[in-house]
Amino acid sequence: MTSLHPAESLQQTAPDAPAIVVQGLVKRYKQLAAVDGIDFAVRRGEVFGLIGPDGAGKTTTFQILAGVMEPTAGTASVLGRPPRDARLKIGYITQPFSLYLDLSVDENLRYSAELKQVDEALFEERRARYLKLVDLDRFADRLAGQLSGGMKQKLALCAALIPQPEILLLDEPTTGVDPVSRREFWDVLAALSEEQVTVVVATPYLDEAERCHRVALMYGGRLESPDTPARLRAGLGLARLEVHASDLERAEQVLQTLEAVEDVQTFGDRLDVLVADPERGERAVADALSGLSPQVGRADPTLENVFVTRLRQQGSDPPLLNFPHPLRRSAPAEAVAIGAHQLGKTFGSFRAVHDLSLEVHPGQIYGLLGANGAGKTTTIKMLCGLLPPSTGSVTLAGESDGLRSSELRRRLGYMSQKFTLYDDLSILQNLEFYCGVYSVPRRLRRERIDWVIDICGLRGQENLITGQLPGGWKQRVAFGASVMHQPEVLFLDEPTSGVDPLARRQFWRLIEMFARAGTAVLVTTHYLEEAEHCHRLGFMVAGELVIQGTPGEIKARQPGQIYEVVSADLPHAARALRSLFAQASWRVALFGDRLHVVLDEPDARLAKLQAVGHTRKIEYSLEDAFIGMVQRARQEGS
Questions:
Q1: Residue 69: closest CA among 87, 53, 56
Q2: Alpha carbon distance 38, 236 (integer Å)
């Protein structure tokens, strides 16, 4: 790993003094307390995670720490100074892309350097170092607007690093970024932390929060005491069971009535069940589901379990309201609602999609996964009739012809990756517009609009201009607009991007509600924990579908074995193990206080794993499976 040469301190302070100290911090907007008396400190070189639902006050906190906003009360100290006086030593990545899209990679970096008064010689040295670190040195002349989402975020990080800050403030830096780029991004943060750069990061992805040294939960402007992810999970006081059954819908209904069960959630081909006593809970679940061929196994609770449980205790769980006048369709299970046969698309000499075949049946949720630029959005546009294929054929809602007809379009729902509502209209006006587009009968429009407003938690705010909503709230409204007509086929292109975990859970409960009524759903996502909700998955790499199956099948078909390594000196362990995989550094990934290492077979390198720390076998996660498949495919392609 390239040395990062941390900058000299702003002033002489004790080496163990906190880099950031916040005491009694308050920010009010008229009667609204966006930040309501929070206290925390961040150590030098620490990666500190700030997690919470949309509107919790995280962005306001970042703006105060960055010195662009003054608090109403309380104090914030950065490197021993008020934030405004420390701005030259702070790097800040805002929630929207903080780049100029009509400038090149190099021009964005030069602008950042000039803004922070970086000497020309130092700029050239740092430019070369950081572009290589984030693997963008080949794209220096490319316009920022032509980069993928992951590349844009890595460029934003690079621009923030050019002034060589001691503090990095990152407000949801990986929203919309694919899993490979996310892992690479967090590897860079780990390297910065080793060089004593202090990182404060907000993220809606709780698998990312697992990689922080400490995490604090924020909601309603207040902050809970920070702690390590491991201690937060241990303090939950609940055990997690993974349950498979012959009829998951029926099993979920039964388990929701059990006194021993604290929470139950569907994840594609299994249920996740939280219980207070694992032995008693396991017996109770097995007995209650005795007629449904249950398989019950124990698993560690996740940080998302902690997050959801804490917010529910605060009464923050959004309501799950049944769709008005639900319609159950009777299409045969073997019918093809969405079908592609040897589908291909070329743009000039560029092959975006090649020889893709898939089928989605009524009531099925199919997840289409891939890195940025893999061809997912192009595939969706061909499947829903927005883009003609170059080769192959499409079946949609049982139809193979007339895919662009208005009659067929009314049977589809589509939520695009780019936000599809009109920012200059109110929420209510947007919903009324989509009722008209989808020909919802006038007598049903009012109750369906009310349903969307209620599931979004926007009752009394329906006349707000949509452009004023945070990104997560916009996503909720856009989803509601896409399903008001109860479509037979539903396309969702990254519907939960930037949505907090509690709202994400509600999204999936709603998606499952429509699937159980017979709607066929095709969804893309970069958040592989939520891909576990899908009945079947397909992984795309460079325009090709390389594997399909249930989440369990895909994980079981991965070659080799994953080992978890826990070491007292994690940075040293990471460097030592990565040196074993010079051409495949993806095989070693940092997860907070431990490492995941992929071995194709238990060869001599296993002993080297055991030499640097406690080592044990673990099961593949979907993220591990996805990254391994993408990287192997890339190596074979090159």
A1: 87
A2: 22
pLDDT lower than 50: segments of the chain: 1-13, 638
Measured CA to CA, the distance from residue 373 to residue 177 in angstroms comes to 11
Q: Which residues touch 605 (CB under 8 Å, ≥6 apart)?
A: 580, 599
- pLDDT, position 10: 38
Per-residue pLDDT tens digits for 74-104: 999 999 999 999 988 998 988 766 788 899 9
Distance CA(89)–CA(118), nearest Å, equals 12
Which segments within 426-576 are labelled E, that is strand? Answer: 489-493, 520-524, 536-541, 544-549, 561-566
Count CB neighbours of 423 within 10 A: 12
Per residue in 483-516, pLDDT (tens digit) is 999 999 999 988 887 777 778 888 888 998 899 8
Domains and CATH numbers, the chain: 20-228 (3.40.50.300), 237-300 (3.30.70.100), 338-549 (3.40.50.300), 559-619 (3.30.70)
Q: Which of 68, 73, 57, 59 is nearest to 22 (CA)?
A: 73
**Cα(568)–Cα(614) distance, rounded to whole angstroms?**
9
Give the distance from CA 163 to its chain's centroid: 29
Residue 525 is predicted with a pLDDT of 86
Scanning the structure block, which residue is given the tokens 């040295």? 125
Task: Name the residue among 335, 351, 349, 336 with its Cα closest to residue 393.
Answer: 336
Give the other-Cβ count within 10 Å of 637's Cβ.
Answer: 9
DSSP state of 403: T
Q: Determine the Cα angle at 182 with ends 359 and 371, to 5°.
A: 30
The closest of 135, 133, 134, 131 to 106, measured between CA atoms, is 131
Q: Which amino acid is at 154?
A: K
Structure tokens at 209: 């929060």
How far is Cα 187 from Cα 181, in angstroms, rounded to an integer?
Answer: 10
Distance (Å, whole) CA 408 – CA 226:
52
Torsion of CA 306, 308, 309, 310, to 10 degrees: 80
CA 88 – CA 309 distance, rounded (Å): 40
Query: Can you tell me the distance from the alpha carbon of 505 to that of 500, in angstroms, rounded to the nearest whole number?
Result: 9
What CA–CA distance (Å, rounded) separates 283 from 293? 14
- Rounded to whole angstroms, the Cα distance separating 484 from 437 reads 11
Cα distances (Å, whole numbers) of residue 548 to 421, 534, 536, 545, 557? 33, 12, 7, 8, 11
pLDDT score recorded for residue 20: 96
Total H helices, total E strands in the chain: 20, 26
How large is the C-alpha radius of gyration of the chain? 25
DSSP state for residue 55 in the 8-state scheme? T
Give yes or no for a contact between 48 and 22, defined as CB atoms under 8 angstroms apart: no
Provide the residue type at 351 as one letter: R
What's the rounded Cα separation, in Å, for the pair 456 and 556? 37
Which stretches does DSSP call E strand in 4-52?
20-29, 32-42, 47-51
